[in-house]
Write a structure and sequence with these properties.
Elements (H helix, E strand, L loop, with lengths): L2 E7 L5 H13 L3 E7 L7 H8 L15 H6 L2 E4 L2 H6 L8 E4 L12 H21 L3
Parallel strand pairs: 1-2, 1-3, 3-4
Helix pairs in contact: 1-5, 2-5
Length: 135
C-alpha cells in the first residue's frame, strides 16, 4: 500500500510544488502525492523553469489551498516552511508529520542568475531529502 504524502507550504507556489515534482519522479513506486498551501499564490514560473532543467515538468500543477479532504487522504504531511508548520491544521493521530525548513526561493533578490541559483539550491536540497526519505 502506498503512502499518501501531502506537501504543505505557505503559498503552494515554489517549495511544495518542487517537492511534489520530485516525489512523483523519484518515489511514485511507494507514494502518491499532492501539495497544497495555507494560501494559493499560483505556481512560480522560475520553479517551473528550474525543475524543467532536471527533466521534471510541473507546468501543469495547480496552486491549491489545503482542505479537509486532503487531510483525510494523507498518511504523511511534510511542511516545507515555518509558516506552514505553525499554521498546519490539526491532523488525525494516524498521520505522520515531518518538518523540513526550506528557504523561500521566491523571496530571493539579486540578478536573474543569482535568483535561479537560489532556486536550484532549494530544488537540489529537496531532492536530497526526498531521496533519503523512508516511506
Amino acid at each position: 500500500m502506498k503512502t499518501n504524502v501531502l506537501v504543505l507550504c505557505t503559498g503552494n507556489a515554489c517549495r511544495s510544488q518542487m517537492a511534489e515534482g520530485w516525489l512523483r519522479a523519484l518515489r511514485s513506486d511507494v507514494c502518491d502525492v499532492q501539495s497544497a498551501g495555507i494560501e494559493a499564490h499560483g505556481v512560480n514560473a522560475t520553479a517551473v523553469e528550474i525543475m524543467a532543467e532536471v527533466g521534471i515538468d510541473i507546468s501543469q500543477h495547480q496552486s491549491t489551498v489545503i482542505d479537509g479532504a486532503m487531510i483525510e487522504w494523507a498518511t504523511l504531511v511534510i511542511t516545507v516552511c515555518g509558516h506552514a508548520d505553525e499554521a498546519c491544521p490539526t491532523l488525525p493521530q494516524r498521520v505522520k508529520r515531518i518538518h523540513w525548513p526550506t528557504p523561500d526561493p521566491a523571496a530571493l533578490t539579486g540578478t536573474p542568475e543569482e535568483v535561479r541559483a537560489g532556486f536550484r539550491a532549494v530544488r537540489d536540497s529537496l531532492k536530497a531529502r526526498i531521496t533519503d526519505l523512508l516511506i
